[in-house]
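Q: Got a minute? One more chain.
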Amino acid sequence: MDYAQLRFIMVEQQIRPWDVLDQRVLEVVGRLPREQFVGDAYAGLAYADLDVPLGHGEFMLQPKIVARALQALAPRDNEVALEIGTGSGYLTACLACLAAQVDSVDIEPDFKHAAQARLRALELNNATLRVGDAAQGWGLRDRYDAIAVTGSLPEAAQLAPFEQRLAVGGRLFAIVGEAPVMRAMLITRMDETSCTRHTLFETGVKPLRGLSKQQVFIL
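A: Always. Here it is, folded:
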């Protein structure tokens, strides 16, 4: 199978039409071997516009959602990023190509170990992976320049633990709501006391493990 051609088609037919024009993002998603981040049985689907099963009832984010998240976060090569939900490690790898350092956490130990092996195989050594329940907020550091939450949050109030991890000028990508209406949002910390929230697009992903609509945590 010609994966290089599939990557090209993915970029041109899925990602660019979704208004992803950031050249750094296009270069990264056009280069990283997405097929290496799924099981062998699903390698042929790695570039399709669908949810690829990962196990434990979880799915790999669609390429266009990954690309829009990266474009919105715009991580720079002197910044530190946090990922909530390592999953396959593909978004981790993309962040590692764009940022100086990535911290990532997942509730499933085998996701963490598999992703770590994939990152090492690609010689991406600037990502630190941990196992933990991040539903109530998590981080190896007090503040981050960019945070990506890969599972949805039922209510906007549940953004608070992650917003509080943002450095001034930091950006948070999260998907908020319940099916059938979920909104991908970009939150930017303006100063120590305020953040702006901007809706990017509507989509649908599985909820972040460990959160329900009634659980709202403030750190």
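A: The first strand starts at residue 52 and ends at 55.
Q: Perfect, thanks.
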